[in-house]
Design goal:
Length: 676
């Protein structure tokens, strides 16, 4: 084994020796950074170093000068706790300064504890285990669909979308059900350009994996429709063969690398304590000596960088050639507008909205389906599906019109996710992060609980995904309390940088969908009714303008209002009926389809709609009342539901829970009586 003392003859070393020494340098960076921060996960990063080094050095296609080149291969570190491995590689690529590595896990650094998508070379924010795997499935799905879309009627332009998605997964990743759910979808859809490397080092924070897991993942993934290879995760020839084999398969591939935790450590190899804590300095010193490194901290010789980057000129030329094809395709092909909008991310549509007749009754879930069908015609980048609820979510016509995405039909725009809410949401994040698509997914609002970790990551990553949550209140009726969302509206509103839309009628629904599409950096949830609600007056153009402000005065009184009723969704029409029963009272009705948007408006406008003083403020919403106090004040009246529902017809429940116009009007009158 060569050491740093022999670098003068580096050019004469064998490729194997050069690679081994380079990997040793990476391990040195990992150990030093984690030790300096006194925080991190060195063990898994060291066990995975061989594969990731070889992947980046010999196989991964990217533009060294442009981390955002559209047709790059995607690499996802699903085990985000091993972030120092990725940062070390990014340093060798040239996208990460050594000074940032020295600031690992410190405030304001570009080396946070877990990778974040804002960092050049990081494809998605990971850390919550399993979600990186699922986002990788989403990226591979996006590549397959777009490759097919842009190749239609134009053979040359197919070259524009042609890349692989690689995922590094850990024992912990595969123990998370979201990963296995996404894996089932990937196998079913035949996503052959998805390659997962599973670092099976048999060690977790608490000890050996065998304490909690005895799954034969080779058999499991074979059953899920994957190509499976089991290798020694430190055997470079085996890794080369595995990657090359995976790239010619007609199904997704998993490479199970049997590795040693903290590989290379002087005395702590296999020790689970290296998983989540720095190596002692004495162990680091002895390990560096064993690996042929100097004691110097953050040691990266130029010889290693030169060796690692030897094919960069070829990569740059490949990217340059692609850009020439892209330029030509946006000028000369039938698909030039689609190509340009897809790759630029500036996806636009004529957005033809169906005509909804005022006074008609229509469930907002049905309105969603009508709007979806209308806008999809001119927006081939709009793709999605439902968690086995097409008839209920009203995405069934979309599915019938555009067909299911399948292994033998990559042009299908409907994704049959099955009963997999969490994988669906995480896959949607991956699709959005890939670029070129606007994904949507539907289920019942009560099942947003299953999706919440992915909803949170969507907000953190600022991705444009559209979640359709129907059956948004106790009006679900006979399905009972398990299916009646009570706390869910407020729970979603608690997520920062996440727009929650609860439209009052079909027209507001169309407006909310428009906003969800136009907000390129914000995930959105549309909470929609099962039951029919009256379509309110006003032109669609005027409704669009009003809804764009998040809340607006729907019905006003002459002079200053005595009572302001704030409502969302199906309770807006109920509020109108309540106001009619408050004889002699000056009542203003405010529709609040999106709190988050309203809160961003100018103070003057907010005070115009909801003045600080001079009127009693009342909220009506079929859910918990926590949170309404920010608008109605401490002296306001919040009408809601602070208990679970019951199984009965919706009309009976409305009466039982006090959600009729007469009951609410009576409650308001009594409340006023107490104030006087």
């Amino acid at each position: 084994m060569h050491t740093y003392k022999e670098l003068d003859s580096f050019e004469y070393w064998s490729i194997t020796d050069k690679d081994q020494f380079s990997i040793a340098v990476i391990k040195g960076l990992i150990m030093d950074a984690v030790r300096k921060a006194n925080s991190g996960h060195p063990g898994g990063a060291m066990s995975s170093a061989d594969f990731i080094y070889l992947l980046f050095k010999d196989y991964l296609i990217f533009d060294p000068k442009d981390p955002n080149w559209f047709d790059r291969d995607r690499f996802i570190l699903s085990g985000g706790h091993m972030s120092m491995l990725q940062y070390s590689i990014l340093h060798l690529v040239g996208w990460m300064k050594l000074s940032e590595i020295k600031k690992f896990r410190q405030l304001g650094s570009h080396t946070p504890g877990h990778p974040e998508v804002e960092i050049p070379g990081v494809e998605c924010t990971t850390g919550p285990l399993g979600q990186g795997f699922a986002m990788g499935v989403g990226m591979a799905l996006a590549e397959a669909y777009l490759s097919n879309l842009i190749s239609i009627n134009d053979k040359e332009s197919k070259k524009l979308i042609d890349h692989y998605t690689y995922v590094l997964a850990t024992d912990g990743d595969l123990q998370e059900p979201v990963a296995l759910g996404a894996a089932a979808i990937a196998g079913h859809l035949g996503l052959n350009k998805l390659v997962v490397y599973y670092d099976a080092n048999d060690a977790q924070i608490s000890g050996k994996v065998s304490r909690s897991d005895s799954v034969n993942y080779a058999v499991l993934f074979d059953g899920l429709g994957w190509n499976v290879q089991e290798i020694d995760g430190h055997d470079h020839s085996a890794m080369h063969f595995a990657i090359e084999t995976a790239k010619v398969m007609d199904k997704p591939s998993i490479i199970i690398g049997k590795t040693v935790m903290a590989k290379g450590a002087a005395t702590m190899e296999t020790d689970h304590n290296t998983h989540g804590a720095p190596l002692p300095q004495e162990e680091i010193d002895r390990t560096k000596e064993k690996l042929g490194l100097p004691a110097k901290k953050f040691y990266v010789p130029t010889e290693v960088i030169d060796h690692f980057t030897q094919r960069f000129s070829d990569l740059t030329l490949e990217a340059k050639h692609w850009k020439e094809i892209y330029k030509k395709a946006t000028k000369e092909t039938e698909l030039k507008h689609i190509i340009a909008s897809t790759i630029s991310g500036k996806i636009i549509s004529e957005f033809d909205t169906p005509t909804f007749k005022s006074g008609d009754m229509l469930a907002t879930r049905k309105a969603f389906g009508a709007v979806l069908d209308s806008i999809a015609v001119n927006m081939p980048q709009l793709i999605g599906g439902s968690a086995d609820l097409e008839p209920s979510n009203y995405t069934g016509n979309f599915a019938k019109t555009y067909g299911d995405f399948q292994k033998n039909n990559k042009s299908g725009r409907n994704i049959p996710f099955g009963v997999r809410e969490f994988p669906m949401a995480a896959i949607m994040n991956g699709m959005a992060l890939h670029g070129g698509l606007i994904p949507f997914g539907g289920t019942f609002l009560v099942f947003s609980d299953y999706e919440r970790p992915a909803l949170r990551l969507a907000a953190i990553q600022k991705v444009r995904v559209i979640h359709e949550f129907t059956h948004d209140s106790f009006y679900v009726g006979e399905d009972g309390p398990t299916h009646q969302p009570i706390e869910h509206i407020m729970s979603l509103r608690a997520i920062p940088d996440f727009n929650v839309y609860r439209p009052a009628d079909a027209k507001e629904t169309a407006s909310c969908i428009r906003l969800a599409i136009e907000n390129e950096n914000t995930p959105s949830a549309l909470l929609l009714t099962r039951q029919g609600v009256p379509i309110l007056s006003g032109s669609q153009k005027q409704v669009d303008a009003n809804v764009s402000k998040g809340a607006y005065t729907l019905i006003d009184t002459k002079g200053s209002p005595e009572i302001i009723i704030l409502a969302t969704g199906s309770e807006v029409s109920l509020a109108i009926d309540v106001a009619k029963k408050l004889d002699g009272k000056k009542v203003r009705i405010v529709s609040m389809p999106c709190w988050e948007t309203f809160d961003k408006q100018a103070d003057d406008y907010k005070k115009e709609v909801i003045p600080d003083r001079g009127s009693l403020k009342i909220s009506i919403e079929a859910g918990i009342t926590n949170g309404w106090e920010k608008y109605i004040g401490i002296n306001g009246l919040a009408i809601g539901l602070n208990h679970f529902g019951s199984s009965a017809p919706a009309g009976d429940l409305a009466h039982e829970f006090g959600f009729t116009a007469d009951q609410i009007a009576d409650k308001i009158e009594k409340f006023l009586g107490k104030l006087l």
